[in-house]
Design brief:
This protein is of the alpha/beta class and 453 residues long. The chain has two domains: 346 residues, ANL, N-terminal domain (Rossmann fold, 3-Layer(aba) Sandwich); 104 residues, GMP Synthetase, Chain A, domain 3 (2-Layer Sandwich). It has eleven helices and 26 strands. The strands form five sheets. Strands 2-1-10-9-11-12-13-14-15 form a nine-stranded mixed beta sheet, with helices on both faces. The chain has an eight-stranded mixed beta sheet with strand order 6-5-3-4-7-8-18-19. A four-stranded antiparallel beta sheet has the order 16-17-20-21, with no helix packed on it. 49% of the residues are buried. It holds the Pfam family AMP-binding_C. Belongs to the ATP-dependent AMP-binding enzyme family.
C-alpha cells in the first residue's frame, strides 16, 4: 500500500490552499524535531488542539518516523505520559515540546491512539497499528471508488477516528482534500458548487441541517444531489432522515458502521452498492459474526485495535476481545450474507416493567415529530422499578410547549405504552461529544436532576 508523494499533495484548509513544498517542509522539520526529542517506534507523542494543518503535519510526521501519535485534545479525560507534545502556533504551524519523565511504552507496530467518544461511559484510549491505518485508507477508498480525480470535503475534526479515516483515504489516493475546521452550512454548499466537490462527509445532525436548507431551496438539493458520495457516520442514521433526505434531494446518504476499536470502518453503503435499513456490506478483508445469545456484533479485521492503552502504566488491555481474537463491539445486529444491520447498543438497552427497550427505536419516533431536528433517549433507574425513559429533543422552534406536545402525540401513535418517554425536554442544541454524538453521560445527569427536582 503506497502513498502518494507530498510533492503532489492537494490540500485546502479553511479555503487556503496548502502549497505542497511548504507542507513537505513542515513535515520534514516537525519529524526532525520529534526525532531529536526521542520520538520513534513505540515512543508515543501527543497532539493537542484541533488545528487541521497541525493535525495533518503531525500525522505525516508520525508516518515518517513510524511513531505512534496520541490525539489528546481538550476532551481527553486524563494525562498520558508521552515523549513529546505538538501544538499549533498562532499561524497554525506545529510546535514541538519535549517531555520529561518516562513515557508510556507501546509496541513498535503502534501508529495512532484515539480516545473513544465516551458518549455512554468513560472514554478509552484505543491503540491502532500502522498497518491498520494503511488498511483503512485502502479498503475505504476501494469501497467508495475514490481516485485522485475526487475532491473530498470534510467539515469534521481530523483528530477523531471518522475524520482521520478520510485523511487516510486522501493519503492513499492522492485526491484533493478540503478540510473545514467548523461546519458552516452556507460555506459547505458554496464549496460544493464552486470547487466541484465529489464527496462530502458528515454526521447525521449536519445532514439534517442541509436537508432543511434543501427543502427550502431547490438549488441546495441540486448541489447535494450532484455529489457522488454523501458519507454519513459518527452516529446512527435514522430511517426518517434517510427517507426524507432521499425524497427531498433525490439521492441517498451513504452511511456505514464503524468504531474506533475497529479502525474505524467495518461496513459501508456505497454508490451502486446500497441497501436501506442496513449499514452496507463488510469491507473487503473484514469478517463479522453474531454472538448466538446476545446477537452482539463481533469483528475480525486487519484494522482492529491492538488493545486499550493502560493509562496507569505500560501495556495493552485485550479485555474487548474474545478468546479466539474477535473484537466484541458492544452493538447488537443482524447479518444477511455480507450485509450488516445494527439494531442497538447492548449497554444502552433499557428495561421498563420487565421488557427491554432499545433507545434507538424511541429516538426514531421522537425525530418524526414536527419541529424536531434530532433526539436522544436515556434511562434513569429508580430503585428496583427499572428504567424511566427520558427523551431530549433538539428543536430551533420557539414554541417549546407545542413541540413537546407534538412529540407526545407522535409517540402515542408509534410506540406501545411501555416505550413512551415519561419526560420530554426540548433543547436548542443537544450536548455532544467531540465526535458529534449526543453526550449520553451529560443527558443522563440532566435527566436525573430533573426527576429529583
Amino acid at each position: 500500500m503506497t502513498y502518494h508523494p507530498l510533492s503532489r499533495a492537494r490540500l485546502t484548509i479553511d479555503g487556503e490552499r496548502v502549497v505542497p513544498r511548504e507542507l513537505a517542509a513542515l513535515v520534514n522539520r516537525t519529524a526532525a524535531q520529534l526525532r531529536d526529542a526521542g520520538v520513534g517506534r513505540g515512543r508515543l507523542f501527543a497532539l493537542t488542539g484541533e488545528h487541521p494543518l497541525t493535525t495533518v503535519v503531525s500525522a505525516l510526521a508520525a508516518e515518517r518516523l513510524g511513531a505512534p501519535l496520541l490525539f489528546a485534545g481538550a476532551r481527553a479525560p486524563r494525562r498520558v505520559a508521552v515523549t513529546a507534545t505538538v501544538h499549533a502556533s498562532r499561524t497554525g504551524g506545529p510546535l514541538v515540546t519535549a517531555s520529561a519523565g518516562r513515557p508510556v511504552g507501546l509496541p513498535d507496530t503502534a501508529g495512532a491512539v484515539f480516545w473513544t467518544s465516551g458518549s455512554s461511559g468513560d472514554p478509552k484510549a484505543v491503540v491502532l497499528s500502522q498497518s491498520a491505518l494503511r488498511f483503512q485508507g485502502a479498503a475505504t477508498a476501494a469501497r467508495l471508488a475514490v481516485s485522485d480525480e475526487d475532491r473530498l470535503l470534510l467539515p469534521l475534526p481530523l483528530s477523531h477516528a471518522y475524520g482521520f479515516s478520510v485523511l487516510r483515504v486522501w493519503r492513499h489516493t492522492g485526491a484533493h482534500l478540503y478540510v473545514e475546521s467548523a461546519f458552516r452550512p452556507a460555506r459547505v454548499l458554496d464549496l460544493t458548487a464552486r470547487e466541484g466537490i465529489t464527496s462530502l462527509d458528515g454526521v447525521p445532525a449536519m445532514y439534517r441541517v442541509l436537508l432543511t436548507a434543501a427543502s427550502r431551496d431547490a438549488s441546495v438539493a441540486r448541489a447535494l444531489r450532484g455529489l457522488r458520495v454523501r458519507g454519513c457516520g459518527g452516529d446512527v442514521l435514522g430511517t426518517a432522515l434517510h427517507d426524507e433526505f432521499r425524497s427531498v434531494v433525490g439521492a441517498p446518504l451513504h452511511d456505514g458502521y464503524g468504531l474506533s476499536e475497529a479502525g474505524p470502518n467495518v461496513a459501508l453503503n456505497a454508490p451502486g452498492l446500497l441497501r436501506s435499513s442496513t449499514v452496507g456490506t463488510l469491507l473487503d478483508g473484514v469478517r463479522a459474526r453474531l454472538d448466538p445469545g446476545t446477537k452482539e456484533i463481533q469483528v475480525l479485521s486487519p484494522s482492529q485495535m491492538l488493545g486499550y492503552l493502560d493509562t496507569g502504566g505500560d501495556g495493552l488491555s485485550r479485555a474487548a476481545f474474545t478468546e479466539d481474537g474477535w473484537l466484541r463491539t458492544g452493538d447488537s445486529g443482524a447479518l444477511d450474507g455480507d450485509w450488516l444491520s445494527v439494531t442497538g447498543r447492548l449497554k444502552e438497552v433499557l428495561v421498563v416493567n420487565g421488557e427491554t427497550v432499545a433507545p434507538a427505536v424511541v429516538e426514531e419516533a421522537v425525530r418524526t415529530a414536527s419541529g424536531v431536528l434530532d433526539a436522544a433517549v436515556v434511562g434513569v433507574r429508580v430503585g428496583d422499578r427499572g428504567d424511566t425513559i427520558c427523551a431530549f429533543a433538539e428543536s430551533t422552534r420557539p414554541e417549546v410547549a407545542a413541540t413537546r406536545r407534538h412529540v407526545a402525540e407522535t409517540c402515542r401513535k408509534l410506540l406501545p405504552p411501555h416505550m413512551r418517554p415519561r419526560t420530554v425536554r426540548i433543547m436548542a442544541e443537544l450536548p455532544r461529544t467531540g465526535a458529534g454524538k449526543p453526550d449520553r453521560v451529560r443527558l443522563r445527569a440532566l435527566a436525573a436532576e430533573g426527576m429529583a427536582s
